[in-house]
Specification:
This protein is α/β, with parallel strands linked by helices. It has three domains: 7-103 and 213-262, 3-Layer(aba) Sandwich (Adenylosuccinate Synthetase, Chain A, domain 1); 107-198, Adenylosuccinate Synthetase, subunit A, domain 2; 265-425, Adenylosuccinate Synthetase, Chain A, domain 3 (Alpha-Beta Complex). It is 32% helix and 18% strand. It has helices at residues 19-26, 79-91, 111-123, 133-142, 155-177, 184-198, 206-214, 247-253, 285-292, 317-327, 363-367, 394-407; strands spanning 7-11, 32-35, 44-48, 51-55, 68-71, 76-77, 100-102, 107-108, 219-222, 262-268, 271-273, 311-313, 315-316, 331-335, 346-352, 371-376, 411-415, 423-425. Strands 7-5-2-9-1-10-14-17-18 form a nine-stranded mixed sheet, sandwiched between helices. It has a three-stranded mixed sheet with strand order 13-15-16. It has a two-stranded antiparallel sheet with strand order 3-4. A hairpin with a 2-residue loop joins strand 3 (44-48) and strand 4. The radius of gyration is 22 Å and the shape is globular.
Length: 426
């Protein structure tokens, strides 16, 4: 039997590129899907036969029966939210037991972390989801976090660690903000009760994954958020708290990056962003209204996690080129091409005016760049039934070819509608 490809899928912009649709599609040809970073701040949605499934922490591959799913060491786990998500999947007929596991090195998002992030957002607005993700990663970096594998030590040990956290860290917030944190005893008890529901889900599969990647293949590494939200390479400080680029997958999965055969970058046919931060190609009110939709459809541009309306604008070819380069993209997936039907002209930013470097390191510089656009004549009609490149409207083809030129990577997948099957494969 031929060896299956090992694949990495990453977003190329500020998240919400439609990665879940592409991951779900590619999951047909792999055996194991691994989420390599992020937490409940993600919102991956897939529509199947008119029914919408929204995932936050569970890998998208769970929607494919018999596929194995892993939450990697680079993720941060909110156990209460995870259980709620699993209950929802069960109610939708998705069986997860025996198919989902968590690396014991993944850190836990504590109730304290959500409280801290709420304090941060009230004083220094970034536009986070207030899911406690940043503080959880902060504790990880400070070496005071709790890994999910440590829950096997029992309530007394966990309570002791939480009590130490309150004395060393929590006291600072309590004194400065006059804030009271939940009792370590209660938090430890809740964590252990959550683990009882989850059962034998914490398993170290790093050596197994290495062997599979080298022999059979068929591993898909699923990223959350997008390249421009990378803690290192994104629009800092308006970024997420983990490494979102392809290299972050090897870090989280303890795998040689060279074992991956393909890196697939996902981009919408236009740009969106949620929260604060630079957005060079953000459209005017009229353009945003056309691209965003009214909110009546599940696929309109409103956050799957927060419900917030997304900021919308034209595709930024400068960001596309930069993200394709630093991720080493082999193939490009372009989603939501159907949204552009009826819009004329369609604009595409190809460079920034009077800027020496493509993407400046300083956020203040990126905020003030002036995009230079190329205009493309629009196309009309419903393209959701199209499944072949030959049938795509001529003007849409011209637009896609220019995107290929800018990215330096071939467009292999084109999303033309909301359903999982509304994809053109080239």
């Amino acid at each position: 039997m031929a060896k299956l490809d090992n694949i990495i899928v990453v977003g190329l912009f500020w998240g919400d590129e439609g990665k879940a649709k592409i991951i779900d599609y590619l999951s047909k040809a792999v055996e194991i899907i691994i989420r390599f970073q992020g937490g409940a701040n993600a919102g991956h949605s897939v529509e199947i036969d008119g029914k919408r499934y929204v995932l936050h922490q569970v890998p998208t591959g769970i929607l494919r029966p018999e596929k194995q799913c892993i939450m990697g060491a680079g993720t941060v786990i909110n156990l209460q939210s995870l259980i709620e998500e699993l209950h929802t999947l069960e109610s939708q007929g998705i069986e997860w037991r025996g198919r989902l596991s968590i690396d014991p090195r993944a850190h836990i998002v504590l109730p304290y972390h959500k409280q801290i992030e709420k304090i941060f957002e009230s004083h220094h607005k970034i536009g986070t989801t207030i899911r406690g993700i940043g503080p959880a990663y902060s504790d990880k970096a400070l070496r005071i976090g709790i890994r999910i594998g440590e829950l096997s030590l029992g309530i007394p040990q966990i309570e002791k660690k939480l009590d130490q956290w309150i004395k060393n860290v929590g006291v600072l917030y309590s004194q400065y903000y006059n804030f009271e944190f939940q009792s370590p005893r209660i938090v430890a008890k809740d964590l252990m009760e959550s683990m009882q529901f989850l059962g034998n889900i914490v398993i170290d599969k790093t050596m197994y994954l290495d062997e599979i990647a080298r022999t059979k293949g068929g591993i898909l590494a699923e990223g959350a958020q997008g390249t421009m939200l990378s803690i290192n390479w994104g629009t800092y400080p308006y970024v997420t708290s983990s490494e979102t680029i392809a290299g972050g997958s090897a870090e989280s999965l303890c795998m040689d990056l060279r074992l991956f055969d393909r890196i697939v970058g996902v981009s919408k046919a236009f740009c969106t962003r949620v929260g604060m931060g630079a957005f060079p190609t953000e459209g005017d009110e009229n353009t945003q209204r056309k691209l965003r939709g009214s909110g009546e459809k599940d696929t309109d541009e409103f956050g799957a996690t927060t419900g917030r309306p997304r900021r919308c604008g034209w595709l930024d070819g400068v960001v596309l080129k930069n993200s394709s380069r630093i991720n080493g993209i082999d193939e490009l997936a372009l989603t939501k091409l159907d949204v552009l039907s009826g819009i004329n002209p369609i604009k595409l930013a190809v460079e920034y005016k009077s800027l020496r470097f493509n993407i400046p390191s300083l956020h203040s510089e990126l905020e003030n760049v002036e995009p230079i656009y190329e205009n493309f004549e629009g196309f009309n009609g419903n393209i959701t039934e199209i499944r072949n490149w030959e049938d795509i409207p001529k003007n849409a083809k011209l637009y896609i070819r220019r995107i290929q030129e800018l990215s330096g990577s071939p467009v292999k997948f084109i999303g033309v509608g909301p359903d999982r099957e509304d994809i053109i494969t080239i």
